[in-house]
Design goal:
Layout lengths: L5 E7 L3 H9 L1 H7 L14 E8 L2 E13 L3 E8 L6 E10 L2 E9 L12 H20 L5
Antiparallel strand pairs: 1-6, 2-3, 3-4, 4-5, 5-6
Helix pairs in contact: 1-2
Amino acid sequence: MDAKPIVVEQTFNAPVTVVWQAITDKQQMQQWFFETITEFTPEVGFETEFNVPCEGKNYLHMWKVTEVVPQLRLVYQWRYGGYPGDSAVSWELSEEEGITKLTFTHTGHETIQGDDIFSRENGVAGWRYFIQESLKAFLQPKNS
């Protein structure tokens, strides 16, 4: 079991306010992240659950916001209903001259057990896709 966090970094040709909205606004998150997100509020203590279909199964995603520093840092607990394990994701933003750097970290990923879909390799590939492809493409049209 590899306890090393999953870290993905990406820069965006967009101000931090635009990137922050993309990672905290439900309607925007539905466009690049999970279309099944039912609610999201970047406030400590906020909790949400939603199903994500994958490979013929539904995975209940359970999030609880644990830290918010507007336009700088967002952290939430990430669990899956029916599977043991507890992890957390953090989104850290910094801006320099209109370019925003996102450092995403998923810790505790290795504690989630019970299905091959939770492998580290799948986690790395999934986060790279969401951040370096999907989020990047979502933000590009706004700044072309």
